[in-house]
Design goal:
The chain is mainly α. It contains 5 helices and 2 strands. A two-stranded antiparallel sheet has the order 1-2.
Length: about 120
């Protein structure tokens, strides 16, 4: 069950993503491929934290630290994977993204003045 703090955090993220609402999915994919820091590393490179025991949240934060397209990545993943999301996208682990999904789906209603 989410804590009230985490719910507020996720609502805030959903609102922040609203600026990307009208960006085409293909354009988001191109932006993430071109500018995502995870795309810059070689597949065989060892991450600097290998061997450390990290929670999923800590791993997501480290993997995406400093990435200039975290929001675009997160928006793209929510659009394309929805509740079936796995791994790390947009500096959030999959459990957080699944919890975010409901708030993200409601953003259109909020933007249009609905409940």
């Amino acid at each position: 069950m989410n804590s009230p703090f985490n719910d507020l955090r996720l609502i805030s993220i959903a609102w922040r993503l609203d600026r990307l609402r009208w960006v085409a999915t293909a354009a988001l994919a191109e932006i993430v491929r071109r500018d995502g820091t995870c795309m810059w590393s070689e597949p065989h490179d060892e991450p600097p934290w290998s061997g450390e025991q990290l929670s999923d949240r800590e791993l997501a934060e480290r993997l995406c630290a400093g990435c200039p397209v975290q929001d675009e990545c997160l928006e793209l993943e929510l659009r394309t994977a929805g509740a079936d999301t796995v791994g790390v996208f947009g500096a959030l682990p999959e459990d957080d993204r699944r919890d975010l999904l409901m708030h993200w789906q409601q953003r259109g209603e909020r933007a249009e003045g609905g409940d």
